[in-house]
């Protein structure tokens, strides 16, 4: 099944303690697509300026990303310049030039309107809502957001919540949106307003999937070196939604698997600048990391070993 | 098998956004013992002043904690007064009065010297080392520490590392001790200096167990309300070492289980002040929470479902 992603396509300049990258591929749609394309076809909708180095998108096209919805408009492309300090926990934005992105009005091509899986990258919630008016009812609509929209477009964001099945946001954003310090309560608050599922991303501390009363947690993969955290969240979303679309299975068991594929893709993303690592991945590499995730959290209780006597700790004492 | 714990026995006065507790049971040895006692016999070594309300320790004795090593010395007991802000992430110490604890010289009673499992609570590393001179070679020696000792007794702490099998410390302490921001590298640094196992506690973000090349991660249980974080780390250690001693099995599979029992006990500890919740637990309650932990991280990959075709993501595409 194909995935439609609508979001930014940018040029990032990033400095980390480990190196510098100038004008590399950036943006939520780009990072999402570079991750999701390993699982199946991706349709991308976005805008770039007349100065965009289109050849940089060739690897995405080669991996099955349909760029028919990528408009090239007169003007400058979206550029973002940032620096990470030694702890890599938060980017210090040095410059944001929206360029043609400030006038972005997503136009969904006819051929994309029946996409069964839709990811609304982090853009104005009014535009996210507008995309949904242009598509036939998909099987799953997921959206991302950020602190800027929570602050400046709160009413629109709350309206959008009534029209999506799933939202991904980080822990700080979840707390900001819901005014709840506790993430379990924050997730319930969000689910009460529409989404059946809430993914709360905690960066290096992993991710929660809340679905009704059920809670699933996947740790971040403990990497020995994190090179550049930019795009980890969108790469996570790409693996997560990409997996769901590829399997076309929205059961809880499969949603849990999808979170692990998402976590795997997020962990690859931070190993290099931009989409360098994710776009070049092979399926066996992805499967290998998923197997490592499994190893990371695997444990058996005595309850598993002795299923009949009714108790682990009890059994251990006798 | 019995567990010997050496550490502080204090009176805590704690204020959280949810309430206030005055002169309740506190200290690393107390919190550890209140948790470990559910798994088997515990032998406690510590000191209190002549003003200590000994009746408060009666529930521990009733649950199998041998207090023969608890010295009552002339003078004031160790008192700690602290406040937590709304995020509950770090205690603001308002007052520390060491009292008789400042002259604590652990004397291990003859009857405790063959304890096969030893936990050296967070005290001066020179005293921790001295305890090891008084006991027959145990099957497992674990120690805890804190920022204060890392700063003021670094050489002694490094010496101690050569004599313990396992150390528990939180992420900030691991970074401080090793001067490594990355926790995987920090754990390797510590293991290179003696301990075969390193447990890095990340509070609400879970805990890592490093053993040689293997890494295990257990999330913190996502509670809807955290009442008082005091003693969570020692309660974790009590569940962890308590489980190992009860099962007398140091295999990697069992160490992983032990981390989960530790996490379960830590999650109970924060639901009430002091040891109120942990000491009153029943084994079925503990087993139930362990089962919930299992549910929290449980996922099956397609690799599990289709073990013969050699690939999850590949399988999904075909």
Automatic annotation (TrEMBL), chains A, B:
Name any GO cellular component annotation. cytosol
Highest taxon listed in the record's lineage: Bacteria
Give the Carbohydrate kinase PfkB domain ranges.
Answer: 20-272
Q: Which GO terms describe its molecular function?
A: kinase activity
- Keywords, sorted A to Z: Kinase, Transferase
Under the heading PROSITE patterns, the entry gives: PFKB_KINASES_2 (PS00584)
What is the protein's given name? Answer: Adenosine kinase
Q: Which organism is it from?
A: Roseisolibacter agri
């Amino acid at each position: 099944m194909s995935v439609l992603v609508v979001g930014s396509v940018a040029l990032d300049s990033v400095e980390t303690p480990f190196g510098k990258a100038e004008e590399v591929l950036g943006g939520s749609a780009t990072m999402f697509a570079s991750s999701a394309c390993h699982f199946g076809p991706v349709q991308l909708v976005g805008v770039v300026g007349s100065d965009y180095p289109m050849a940089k998108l060739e690897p995405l096209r080669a991996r099955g990303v349909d760029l028919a919805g990528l408009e090239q408009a007169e003007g400058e492309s979206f550029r973002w310049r940032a620096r990470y300090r030694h702890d890599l926990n938060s980017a210090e934005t040095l410059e944001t030039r929206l360029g043609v992105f400030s006038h972005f009005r997503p136009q969904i091509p006819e051929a994309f309107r029946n996409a069964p899986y839709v990811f609304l990258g982090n853009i104005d919630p009014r535009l996210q809502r507008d995309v949904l008016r242009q598509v036939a009812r998909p099987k799953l609509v997921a959206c991302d957001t950020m602190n800027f929209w929570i602050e400046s477009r709160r009413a629109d964001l709350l309206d959008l919540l009534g029209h999506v099945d799933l939202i991904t946001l980080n822990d700080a954003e979840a707390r900001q949106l819901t005014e709840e310090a506790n993430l379990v309560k924050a997730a319930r608050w969000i689910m009460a307003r529409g989404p059946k599922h809430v993914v709360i991303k905690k960066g290096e501390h992993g991710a929660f999937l809340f679905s009704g009363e059920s809670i699933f947690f996947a740790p971040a993969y403990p990497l020995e070196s994190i090179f550049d955290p930019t795009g980890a969240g969108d790469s996570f979303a790409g693996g997560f939604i990409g997996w769901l679309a590829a399997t076309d299975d929205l059961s809880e068991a499969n949603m849990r698997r999808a979170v692990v594929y998402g976590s795997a893709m997020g962990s690859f993303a931070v190993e290099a600048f931009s989409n360098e690592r994710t776009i070049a991945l092979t399926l066996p590499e992805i499967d290998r990391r998923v197997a490592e995730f499994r190893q990371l959290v695997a444990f058996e209780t005595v309850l598993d070993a002795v299923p009949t006597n009714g108790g682990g700790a009890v059994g251990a004492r006798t």
